[in-house]
Amino acid sequence: MTSVDEVAPDTPSFLGSRHQARRARVTRAGFQWLLVTAVAVALAVVLRSVAFQAYSIPSASMFPTLQVGDRILVQKLFFNWHDLRDGEIVVFARPAADTMCVVPGENVLVKRVVGLPGQRIYSSGNGVFVNGRELSGPYVVPPLGPSIATKGDPFTVPAGDVYVLGDNRANSCDSRYWGPIKGSSIIGKVDLVWWRDGRPEFHWL
Length: 205
Prior knowledge:
Layout: H1 12-51, E1 52-56, E2 71-75, E3 89-93, E4 108-115, E5 120-124, E6 127-130, E7 133-134, E8 155-156, E9 161-165, H2 175-178, E10 181-182, E11 186-196, E12 199-204
Antiparallel strand pairs: 1-2, 2-11, 3-4, 3-11, 4-9, 5-6, 5-8, 6-7, 9-10, 11-12
């Protein structure tokens, strides 16, 4: 039978050492969380500046594909404009030739690629043709608006350039007004709509 004298008393010094050990563990855990948070923030900044970037849609020029208030995710890291295909949606720096539709604060535009270098574009009535094929699709909203004749009809897209149109042709300022854009001015390709009507809603493009 163990006597009382053989049991270590729970002295204040013993309690103090346990408290200090607990405080050290809490401090260490807090530091680890701060470190993880700092790394996460740093990665988010890097991803935003290099890999992906989010934008909001301020106008109806790409309706119905993109609606006012939509938020989109743009791929930048693995993007190369030379790999673009007809029909893909891109964001790009506002061209210097855009003197007709300037909106203060809107320095980045979003449109659909309809013509690549060397392709021949012309209009007939309200239709737009690329290499003899009329552009069509559920994303084109009639009426189609002005033809491309203001920039030459027919028109061959120069090397290094891309011809872009808004889906909402009657309400879009695009290459019909200011000509093709430089491929080097394209920031990235729109991959995803992740916010619509004030809530998360995912649409791959």
